[in-house]
Amino acid sequence: MPVRSTSVTETRAAGTRVALIGTVAVVAILALAAIFLFLNLPDANAFNARVERIFVENDLTSAAEIKLLEILAQSGTAFSDTLASYRVVIFVLLVFATAMLVAALGLLLTIVALNRRMGEIERAGITVNSLLISREERAVYLNNMEFSLTEAAIETLAVLAEARMDDDVLNGAELEALISGRKAADCDESAGAMRIKRLRDALGNQLLSEVLVRTIARRGYMLTIDKDVIRMV
Q1: For labeling, which of 7, 52, 176, 213 is most exposed (least CB within 10 Å)?
Q2: Structural class in CATH, domain 131-232
């Protein structure tokens, strides 16, 4: 299977571009909405301008009329102050909404990237860089992780490793024959399958054992690692 060394870099660059474009789009949409909203808000001095127009266009001389104009002017000032405070509130809410949407977009992109990365890991499995089998110590060193195995499990893994270096696939009978020294025709398929099961149980981690020892339907068993990383001492 060809290894695409630039896939991670390209994915990260694409994710960065999407995040940047999305952030700019969110900010631009909210900025346009803010401009449209502020342009359509009534003028804070509109009420005072109407009161002033009434005063200029009419000859108001009585005390009652002048008092009424004073009340209207005070009402206009209160309206102006209230509208100004509304503008501030609206501006703060728009800034808050922008921040929340940008944060939500960032979290969404992070989740998408993590899901994509988990999918890649799931498809690729565990990469085995080194496999050292020590018969004397009855230990296996897999990517610098040590596993202490039984003698039977070590022999099973060693036979599978030798077969992998020869690009062979062993069925249960052949595996049992190589370990026991008998002919394959005299060995039972289930005996080899039991050895594979015990090896997987000894490794413990189900994901690790399933990735390391692969079952090929109607053919047998093999190690799914590069034969160049196998060493036996």
Answers
A1: 7
A2: mainly alpha
